[in-house]
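Moderator note: this is an archived Q&A kept for reference. The question asked for a predicted structure of one protein chain; the sequence and the answer are reproduced below.
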Amino acid sequence: MRALVVDPDAEGKLRLGEAPEPAPRGDQVLVTVQHLALNFGDLNGARARPAGFVPGWDASGIVLRAAADGRGPAVGDRVVTTMGTQGGWAERRAVDLDELAVVPADLDLGEAATLPVAGVTALRALRRSGALLGRRVLITSAAGGVGRFAVQLAALAGAHVIASVGSLQRGEGLRELGADEVVVDLEGVTAPIDVVLDNVGGPQLVAIWGLLGEGGLVQCIGGTSQQEASFRSLVGMQRSLNAFTKGPRSGSDIEYLMRLMQDGQLKVDIGWRGSWTRITEAADALFGRRVSGKAVLDVD
């Protein structure tokens, strides 16, 4: 079958090639993939994978073969899928039943592909931060995929949302999604901050630590700055710094996010969409911060 595979000699380390067909277990479904969603994590991780590896967590498509044990969606159902082992950027993938959700007929299948990593990460990070009603929540890299979902979900939970972006242009549209403040980096942000979802890391994370109030919490989701952070000089109040990981079994949370989409309470922003033959162009746009929201590839 066709797949996006790791090639150390290719530009961007990925190219459209061929990979072995998946062999589903009895408790898995076989899905014909129609759309892929890109994440920094799977793109970065692909660079360290061996030649021929098929990356990709997020993909949506049609059930080609139902699970042999009789559970789960039926042949022909539209589903959005993810797997910790990746392998989603191919024409077909085998998926665990608790890592997929059936997509309602009124939702775009390409938009649904964006939910597993970015949407569930934002949801679970906020959920693990406790009650948000009336609390001041700072979200860094708010123009990205995780950030835009987090802004909306925090606003729905009743938080005062501060969206931090790299430029004023990147911040366009965030107030409409629910942000109370949109700032460049940390300009104008005042203490105390109650909860932070940080996607940047590095020196900015150190500065954020100094803005936390008593009992403040930082969920460290990513490190797009690729810089080190030193906290040796910061002592004093009780604060928490958590290294966040999304975790497995995303199906039920994906279903919840799709219900919010159906109710008009959650919007998916796709800033780049095109054929999967354009993987190099799409990855370059994502790494170059030229994508607001998510990048989606269509399998054609």
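Archived answer notes: The first helix runs from residue 40 to 46.
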